Amino acid sequence: QVQLVESGGGLVQPGGSLRLSCAASGRTFGNNGMGWFRQAPGKEREFVATINRSGSTTYYTDSVKGRFTISRDNAKNTVYLQMNSLKTEDTAVYYCAVGKTLWISHYETEYDYWGQGTQVTVSS
Predict the structure, then answer these.
(1) Rounded distance, CA 23 to CA 91, Å?
(2) Distance of alpha carbon 77 from alpha carbon 30, whole angstroms
């Protein structure tokens, strides 16, 4: 059974940093693109970042460009999201997902498997 487990969320002050991890089990995902999405209270889930199979190509939503970095370690079947200079508007539940192909994508419909989410709260 495929399982994605996110970790690394928590409470952080504005300007702080967090590193999210998403560990996959049940199968290897070295041939799949991966993505991070988030859902803030009262809002729909939105795309955050995506990375291709090899890690050579990434893409971010405009609001996190220059602050967030997505990366992956295929040997560990894990994808990461380094979040720096966090803002209160980054508060959300963050989800990782496995893509249907090896390419990057910002469309939810292009993802097969989803984690349960990890809460990130940015507040002073």
Answers:
(1) 22
(2) 7
* Beta-carbon count within 10 A of 97 CB: 24
* Per-residue exposure over 105-118, b if at least 16 CB sit within 10 Å of its own CB, e if not: beeeebbebbbebb
CA angle centred on 65, ends 107 and 22, rounded to 5°: 60
Please report the DSSP string for the chain in residue order.
Answer: --EEEEE--EEE-TT--EEEEEEEESS--TTS-EEEEEE-TTS--EEEEEE-SSSS-EEE-GGGTTTEEEEEETTTTEEEEEE-S--GGG-EEEEEEEESSSS----GGGEEEE---EEEEE--
What is the per-residue pLDDT across 7-47, written as a single tens digit (0 to 9) for each? 999 999 999 999 999 999 888 888 999 999 999 999 999 99
**Angstrom distance (rounded) from CA 54 to CA 41:** 33
